[in-house]
Specification:
Blueprint: E1 5-12, E2 22-28, E3 36-42, E4 58-63, E5 68-72, E6 80-86, E7 95-96, E8 99-100, E9 104-107, H1 112-115
Antiparallel strand pairs: 1-2, 2-5, 3-4, 3-6, 6-9, 7-8
Amino acid sequence: MHRLAFLCLLPLLAANGSAPLVFDVEIEGMRNHRGQIHVCLTRNPSHFPDCREDPEAFRQSVAAASHHVQFTGFQPGTYALTVLHDENSNGRMDKVVGRPKEGIGLFSKSDRAFRGP
């Protein structure tokens, strides 16, 4: 398994409070630039790390060479972040013996993906 290193810049709110929240994700440490990067923000712990079934999740996919994803227009709160380097662009996490074969990065208060809630 290859874990991605990523930097999450905390949500920013303009001083006047009227601008939408912005959340930037910078991805580093990928072993190659093939395929796609899929990023998902979810507030629902039951949808972490796979938030595909969460209708309120924020999702974006970009070319792996871009290394940057930006989310806007969400409410303040506690979110969990999942980053998947989908090297073969098949839209899912490939596994070997139950462990991720492609690069993955997880960011939450706990490491639920490998140890439980």
